[in-house]
């Protein structure tokens, strides 16, 4: 099921506005946690732009330089996004937190921090609900974490976890500002910034792992492959499917190789007529499979 770009556009609009207001509030109040949150939102804004670039480039048609298409552009840019969350978002948050602990500065009036955090929470919450609905639409009845691990479309789960980390970061920033002001202890603000860095680091590592797996090439699910093999082996012309390696080239595009042991009674002409028929049947039943290579083989003999 194709993903919608709505969660990305929603997150882009929310993060762009929120980043500006957070930096304004940070400049007025001097809050380290607010600076970290502003950087967090700015990085998220850049991330959404990169994901949109990845989606656009992944739709480019195949050419002489990329005969299998540009589908993996999306996986590449999703991986870059995960690195940015870690390198810029997490790194700067750690730096701001440690700097604030070394040179603590009390927040005189947290009013604008509270206003900005409230607005940001409402906008990020709306963006999170939009991303969650899209992810739930895609996963159907699949358990949440199984769907995350099995998802082939990073544009959906990257935005979802970005928004989740946004909301957690806002809660931590609020606690840092509130406790620091109420207890007249600016160290809470610096600690909050470090915790925000830890949240971003954890999210970035998880996203990097999932994006790397997609970039390296993930197979279709074993269940789907078994259904394809069973369907092919039901053909009287086929004795057995010897091998069936596959790889996702894009969220909606699978490359499949089949090594088939055909019935010994078939002539070369029979096999040449059977192969296009098998290819057409697979595409009709499994539209995700865009490219299919079928190679005759003999059971018990090496295929390479």
From TrEMBL:
<keyword id="KW-0812">Transmembrane</keyword>
<dbReference type="GO" id="GO:0008324">
    <property type="term" value="F:monoatomic cation transmembrane transporter activity"/>
</dbReference>
<feature type="transmembrane region" description="Helical">
    <location>
        <begin position="114"/>
        <end position="135"/>
    </location>
</feature>
<dbReference type="InterPro" id="IPR040177">
    <property type="entry name" value="SLC30A9"/>
</dbReference>
<dbReference type="InterPro" id="IPR058533">
    <property type="entry name" value="Cation_efflux_TM"/>
</dbReference>
<dbReference type="InterPro" id="IPR002524">
    <property type="entry name" value="Cation_efflux"/>
</dbReference>
<feature type="transmembrane region" description="Helical">
    <location>
        <begin position="74"/>
        <end position="94"/>
    </location>
</feature>
<protein>
    <submittedName>
        <fullName>Cation diffusion facilitator family transporter</fullName>
    </submittedName>
</protein>
<keyword id="KW-0472">Membrane</keyword>
<keyword id="KW-1133">Transmembrane helix</keyword>
<feature type="transmembrane region" description="Helical">
    <location>
        <begin position="156"/>
        <end position="179"/>
    </location>
</feature>
<feature type="domain" description="Cation efflux protein transmembrane">
    <location>
        <begin position="10"/>
        <end position="216"/>
    </location>
</feature>
<dbReference type="GO" id="GO:0006829">
    <property type="term" value="P:zinc ion transport"/>
</dbReference>
<dbReference type="GO" id="GO:0016020">
    <property type="term" value="C:membrane"/>
</dbReference>
<dbReference type="Pfam" id="PF01545">
    <property type="entry name" value="Cation_efflux"/>
</dbReference>
<dbReference type="InterPro" id="IPR027469">
    <property type="entry name" value="Cation_efflux_TMD_sf"/>
</dbReference>
<dbReference type="InterPro" id="IPR036837">
    <property type="entry name" value="Cation_efflux_CTD_sf"/>
</dbReference>
<keyword id="KW-0813">Transport</keyword>
<feature type="transmembrane region" description="Helical">
    <location>
        <begin position="191"/>
        <end position="208"/>
    </location>
</feature>
């Amino acid at each position: 099921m194709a993903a919608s770009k709505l969660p990305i556009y929603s997150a882009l609009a929310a993060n762009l506005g929120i980043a500006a207001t957070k930096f304004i509030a940070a400049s007025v109040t001097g809050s380290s946690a607010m600076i970290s949150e502003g950087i967090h939102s700015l990085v998220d804004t850049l991330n959404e732009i990169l994901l949109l670039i990845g989606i656009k480039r992944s739709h480019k048609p195949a050419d002489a330089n990329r005969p299998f298409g540009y589908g993996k552009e999306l996986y590449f840019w999703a991986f870059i996004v995960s690195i940015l969350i870690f390198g810029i978002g997490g790194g700067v948050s750690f730096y701001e937190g440690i700097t604030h602990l070394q040179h603590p500065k009390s927040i005189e009036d947290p009013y604008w921090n509270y206003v900005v955090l409230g607005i940001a929470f409402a906008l990020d919450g709306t963006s999170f609900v939009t991303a969650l609905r899209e992810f739930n639409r895609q996963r159907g009845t699949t358990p949440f974490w199984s769907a995350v691990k099995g998802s082939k479309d990073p544009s959906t789960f990257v935005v979802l976890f970005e928004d989740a980390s946004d909301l957690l970061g806002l809660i931590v920033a609020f606690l840092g500002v509130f406790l620091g002001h109420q207890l007249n202890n600016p160290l809470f603000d610096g600690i909050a910034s470090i915790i925000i860095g830890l949240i971003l680091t954890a999210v970035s590592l998880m996203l990097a792992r999932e994006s790397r797996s997609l970039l390296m090439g993930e197979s279709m699910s074993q269940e789907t492959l078994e259904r394809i093999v069973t369907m092919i082996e039901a053909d009287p012309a086929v004795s057995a499917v010897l091998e069936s390696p596959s790889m996702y080239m894009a969220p909606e595009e699978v490359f499949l190789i089949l090594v088939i042991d055909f019935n010994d009674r078939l002539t070369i002409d029979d096999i040449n007529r059977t192969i296009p028929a098998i290819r057409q049947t697979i595409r009709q039943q499994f539209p995700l499979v865009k490219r299919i290579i079928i190679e005759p083989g003999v059971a018990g003999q090496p295929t390479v």
